[in-house]
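Two proteins follow. First one:
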Amino acid sequence: MIVTNQYIAEQRKQLEDAVSHALELAKTGSDAAEVAVNKTTGISVSTRFSEVENVEFNSDGALGITVYHQQRKGSASSTDLSPEAIARTVQAAIDIARYTSPDPYAGPADKDLLAFAAPDLDLFHPADLDTDIAIELAARAEQASLQADQRITNTEGGSFSSHYGIRIFGNSHGMLQSYCSSRHSLSSCVIAEQDGNMERDYAYTVSRRFDELQSPEWVGQECARRTLSRLGARKLPTMKAPVIFSAEVATGLFGHLVGAISGSSIYRKSSFLLDSLGKQILPSWLTIEEQPHLLRGLASTPFDSEGVRTAPRDIIKEGVLQTWLLTSYSARKLGMVNTGHAGGIHNWRIAGQGQDFAALLREMGTGLIVTELMGQGVSAVTGDYSRGASGFWVENGEIQYPVSEITIAGNLKDMWANMVTVGDDIETRSNIQCGSVLLPEMSIAGQ
């Protein structure tokens, strides 16, 4: 997949012209408009037992437009970017706006918040790969798993993908900006069997740059290690015990904070953190920084989905909640300033407290490590938390055996407030980057 600078420049120009065309058409029949175009190109392959199972090329584009007329809003989209299709899409949005109810809070982002200049965040690193190389990478990762141990008896395959995208955003305030990004990933997933019981697990690597991916052999061996470690899982008796959320699942623990402090949850009064702005909700040693301009960050972006410029900020500072996550609409509803969070968060980072994973085990002594969570048992209204889990039982700071078919329960307010520490084993493959989290106690339901 050879991508030249000239080709990308031509693509960006074509897509910018499409956005400009849509905005020009929208002037007839609307007071304001915003248009976004996204185009993604790439390859995905998968193998199973070294045989090619799937090869998929894609080059998909889509245009979405939102118009505002007399406080009424209409939206439409199209995957056909021809001038004729764009004209039909714009007209559809205008027609829809005629039938919606007026809303005084509707409208594009305020002009003074827009990203009229977009910083280069080093997100664009397309790879010059042909299909044979992509297949080879997937097969090598899978083979490294299969060859690791005779107890690995089956496979769900190896997978490799390499994609790049172009995003264009424009609105009737005169903003027209774009940026390019790339993403490459490699994974393996296998099944191990012992004494008639089977366990499945996976491993993956992902990066903006192809040459920063872990090797296929590392992916395969890590997949094998994780899968084999689950064999011989036991159930636990019902009890209360300390719990470590491994880094991979700890990101989700902080992920529940995203919904709880989103502007839509606050103005709807559907969040258990409704009265928590400016108050301490996490330990005083914990700060959550948002870094949207992190170079090559997987969640980095110069502007949000409304064109609002992003900026570094503290979400939590020394345990105190600093901000809601606001869009134009939610900010107006709450009488506050848009924080540039239309479309989600941008690289939350939680620093470790100087302890590696082994040190966390020693500090816990006896308790549960959670490495996988199942189900959706989290209440956004009360913060009550109850999910299926699997992981490992620890005694005297040493892993004793794997466990499965258990449920852990608590309340997010208590879980956040009582965190003992965050480890230095930072998970960097997520839009939330943190290490393993030690909690003093949770309810565990077992046999």
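Second one, unrelated to the first:
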Amino acid sequence: MPGGITYGCGVTTIGAPLPARGPVLADLLPAAARPGSPRTRARSAVARAAAVNAALVLTGTLLVAGLSQVLVPLPFTPVPLSLGTLGALLVGAALGPARAAASLGIYLAAGILGVGWFAGGASGWAFASFGYLLGFLAASVVVGAMARRGADRSVWRSIGIGLIGGAIVYAFGVPWLMVFTGSSLGEALVMGVAPFVLGDAIKAAIVAIVLPSAWALLARTR
């Protein structure tokens, strides 16, 4: 397949070669050979790659939107506890930075324009937790870049992915919360960080289970 890399497992990656970086999980989708002339096969390969990438991006968007609906409202903070962060981390690691940026970009743009798929069916941007959604985008790109360098292959490194990604979400969410609510840094940390520390640890553990397990499953199929 033009523009791809074939690994020892006989799987051809989709997209441009990455000589200085490794693949993410989405790059290892099998590219089936099709009959026809070399030129026809080349055009077909490009079209298939574009279609697969579009499907991956949309799937990532829907995954984050779906997990964002799994939430626990907390009476002492305007920020709900949801699984949206987990979705952003998994999408970043599985799809890589470029596809993840597209997935989360669609999620944000559509939500701002009125699609009610933010946590609790919210849309728009004028609410206290919107900064965390901006953090989803940034975290997914950073996590995707880390996954390109193999940080999702082991349990401990995957825990690092989860913790770093969560910290990035807070780096965007807390300042927005301060401005939106007029709270001090200490108050914002109490409202927007402290209630979620345990949940973030659980999410990091889930990331540390899912990502290395996916790579191990791939290795067994080689």
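SUMMARY FIELD: The beta strands are 71-72, 81-82. The chain is about 60% helix and 0% strand.
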